[in-house]
Amino acid sequence: MAIMSGRRALKSEARATLLSFARLLAKLHAANPKLRALTGETPKRYFALMLFALLGLGAFAFAVIAIPTPF
Fold first, then answer.
1. How far apart, in whole angstroms, are the C-alpha atoms of residue 12 and residue 23?
2. What is the rounded radius of gyration, in angstroms, for the C-alpha atoms of the chain?
3. 44-50, long-range: CB within 8 Å, 24+ apart, which pairs?
């Protein structure tokens, strides 16, 4: 019984979270009708985001090594 009540509680919590997220999106859409929310990434966009993140981390790592510190 404890397992079933836990699943029910989890489902109701997930449903409440989803409803609050839907309410938030409705408020944002009412404030700005042109607003778009990206809930999923296309493969090309995901690849570009990952590539830029890796390049940014590489630039940061290079800057940490190349720039002398006063210590």
1. 16
2. 22
3. none
Burial class (CB in 10 A: 0-12, 13-18, 19+), 33: exposed
Closest of 31, 32, 33, 51 to residue 41, by C-alpha: 51
Name the DSSP class of 20: H
Alpha carbons 66 and 71: distance in angstroms, whole number = 14
Position 39 scores a pLDDT of 67
Model confidence pTM above 0.70: no
CA 39, CA 13: separation in Å to the nearest integer?
20
Domain boundaries, the chain: 1-37, 40-71
